[in-house]
Design a protein that fits this description.
Helix content is 11%, strand content 37%. It is mainly β. The chain has a five-stranded mixed sheet, with no helix packed on it. The protein has a four-stranded antiparallel sheet with strand order 1-3-6-5, with no helix packed on it. The chain has a four-stranded mixed sheet with strand order 2-8-7-4, with no helix packed on it. The N and C termini lie far apart (96 Å).
Length: 398
């Protein structure tokens, strides 16, 4: 069988050879026949692709370092993907000579780049590369005043603070987004290089749901300092409860969704000395502290006799020590005299107070984020950065 195979092959080849010689008339092939019979050499594209940073680069900055370009041609496709499979979106220049990512890259991440282009004759070219971004050596240490899954009052302001001063405020603003579900616009306001607050134009809508999306991890907040945090936090807005305390009439009107207005006798801050005046303006409940110690040594520019007393049912309004709290003194004072050291006092029982008296009732019904406005006090206005008092800034200036 092996010999038969070889003989058959030899005969076949001989037949082909004889046929070819016969067709050529016995002469040599023409020049054009020789050219067409030889295979075409592959053409080299005139398009030259460049990828920055170069292949194998490490410690690459997340912002502005990645660029793909071509000379002598037009880019047709650029794919950039992280090692974990995440794809980086980007945009081409109008003439197709360049491509850049749509946003910053992630820190501490490996990327692969696959770029393709064609020259004027349509001949394709390709280039691949890879690099890794830097691992931050220093973090900005951001922290806020909200907790995931909690319910807050309609006056809640989201306050974001940084342990390291922020230089690139615009980058931070772009990295914080609010999903309100109803189109409510939320804007930032910087009180310092380390604090930015966020709120809507008016109080939140009761029963709404708000998700704060932080994408700060790869944001260079200051030279060599990165934001560290990528996370979502969702909170719910509860019922509306707004209290207006009139230091002149010594009455506080409480308005709550679905309930009749309630008027509660109060005792506001004393008229003198000035350090005991109650601030005017809108404040927001920051914390429910139970029984709190009121200490004159913690009050800036305190005047008058020193004091250190415990007050029940304490709702903090400002970091500087303004509260709505229970007060265990004669009931006849409330609605008639302002004898507080700057707070709004409500009649309450001894010790930790009583839940059936005005101080305890107001405390039990309150939640962080509730609004308390003081008017007609002899004191000055509350500073907008003193707690969540940013509602005192007009929206046009926020």
């Amino acid at each position: 069988m092996k010999r038969f195979g070889r003989a058959l092959t030899s005969g076949a080849l001989g037949g082909v050879l004889a046929l070819t010689v016969g067709c050529s008339g016995g002469g040599a092939p023409k020049a054009e026949e020789r050219v067409s019979a030889s295979p075409s050499a592959p053409k080299t594209s005139s398009a030259v692709i460049s990828i920055e940073p170069g292949n194998g680069s490490t410690g690459v900055r997340p912002a502005g370092a990645l660029k793909v370009s071509v000379q002598g041609g037009k880019l047709t496709e650029v794919k950039v993907a992280a090692k974990d499979g995440g794809v980086v979106p980007g945009t081409f220049t109008a003439d197709g000579s360049g491509w850049t990512p749509a946003g910053d890259l992630a820190v501490s991440t490996e990327y692969r780049v696959d770029a393709h282009a064609v020259d004027a004759d349509g001949v394709a070219a390709g280039l691949q590369g890879g690099f890794s971004t830097l691992t931050p050596g220093k973090g900005a240490g951001p922290f806020d005043n909200i907790a995931d899954g909690q319910t807050y009052g309609v006056g809640m302001i989201v306050s974001l603070e940084f342990r390291v001063p922020v230089k690139d405020r615009a980058a931070v603003e772009q990295a914080v987004a609010f999903d309100t579900g109803d189109g409510t616009v939320v804007k930032p306001h910087w009180f310092s290089a380390q604090r930015v607050d966020f709120r809507p134009e008016k109080y939140w809508k009761p029963q709404s749901r708000v998700t704060v999306k932080y994408r700060l991890k790869s944001v260079e907040t200051s030279p060599g300092v990165y934001g560290e945090v990528d996370k979502d936090q969702t909170f719910t807005v509860g019922r509306s409860r707004i209290s207006t305390a009139d230091a002149s009439s010594k009455q506080m009107v409480v308005q709550e969704d679905g309930k009749p207005d309630e008027t509660v006798p109060i005792s506001a801050g004393a008229s003198s000395p000035a350090s005991q005046n109650t601030f005017n303006g809108t404040m927001v409940v920051m914390a429910k502290e139970g029984t709190a110690v009121m200490d004159s040594s913690t009050v800036a520019n305190h005047e008058g006799a020193a004091y250190r007393v415990e007050m029940p049912h304490a709702l903090r309004l400002t970091p500087t020590g303004t509260y709505v709290h229970g007060k265990n003194v004669a009931q006849s004072i409330f609605g008639r005299q302002n004898v507080s050291h700057g707070c709004i006092g409500l009649y309450d029982g001894p010790g930790d107070g009583r839940s059936d008296l005005p101080g305890g009732k107001f405390y039990d019904a309150a939640m962080v984020g509730d609004v308390v406005t003081v008017k007609n006090s002899v004191g000055g206005p509350v500073a907008p950065d003193n707690g969540m008092s940013g509602w005192n800034i007009e929206w046009s200036k926020w």
